[in-house]
Amino acid sequence: MNEKIWLSSPHMSGNEQSYVQEAFDTNWVAPLGPNVNGFESDLESYLKEDTYVAALASGTSALHLSLILLGVKHGDEVICQSKTFSASANPIVYQGATPVFVDSEKDTWNMCPIQLEIAIKDRIKKGNKPKAIIAVHLYGMPYKVDEINKIAEEYKIPVLEDSAESLGSRYKGRNCGTFGELSILSFNGNKIITTSGGGALVTKSAELKQKAVFLATQARDNAPHYLHSQIGYNYRMSNIVAGIGRGQMTILDSHVANRRANFEFYKNAFKDISQISFLMEPEGYFSNRWLSCILLDSKSTREGLRLALEKENIESRPLWKPMHQQPVFKDSPSYLNGVSDELFEKGLCLPSGSNLTEIELNRVVSAINTYFAAC
Ligand SMILES: *Cc1c(COP(=O)(O)O)cnc(C)c1O
Asked: What is the pTM of this model?
């Protein structure tokens, strides 16, 4: 059997262990320390736009804290892009609030501004104005930032930007992760950089960052004993994990370049296969191409191809199954136009790691060529 080719696997720079070693040498084996501060300032320098970053245990915990900071409570409604990973929506339920799902458009596969406005108007008419809008830059492709922000401003609803898949992506020259009232990042094992597990909350104010860190470290009031006037969480990033993050930041841009090269490689390799198409970058959009995705001409081609790749020990995966199709969210209101359903049926993510070798990429291409030659 050929060796397994993964969808997206961790890719270390070699610098990580020295930061981790330093943490051990200085006994900073705790959810605070120099690596946490260093990783936060590395991210702030990378993102620019006067951001303040709080390093947390995961992207999911960053989303949860963001909703708390935005004042989302029991009985509230929060709009969320339907085409996403479930972690975008789950924290809404942690707060006792209801997710309201909004479909995608075809240019970026992200939240459709038209459906968004329809949803907002309808929820207001029903007497429950949404408290926040969670928009996602899926697979690294920025959402329609100007269009979404314009609607959000018109109705005065804050945008929570889920940038878990899009560190290193840009919209009109500005970094993803800086567009929301609050934004979140993820450093889980398969993301563009990884700390094994981790995330961050990005804000525009030192005060909000401080509040996030306060809540993430059990909401301890300023007193010699343990005093609490609010419910706290254990969501801070560990100094060991942050050391991995500091090493990863040294190669973020080369990871982006490698992933973009994978996409170009596939695009070029399949240009004569009429059943395959790609999502191109609209003018002004720069995707980190976290995952290289293709669209097939039908659901059966997509599933046939996925199984053919599996037989060759190559991992591929359908695009995210929309949240409005998930059993757990079956009672949530949704505003749909059919786009995310069709993308789910026809879309496939191909192996996309920044560490894929040319031999591995050629194995993927030849397995796909063989499949279509037999069709
Ligand atoms: C990975 C991911 C998250 C969650 O991040 P974790 O660090 O795994 O908790 C949230 N949203 C999206 C879109 C993701 O891809």
From this structure: 0.97
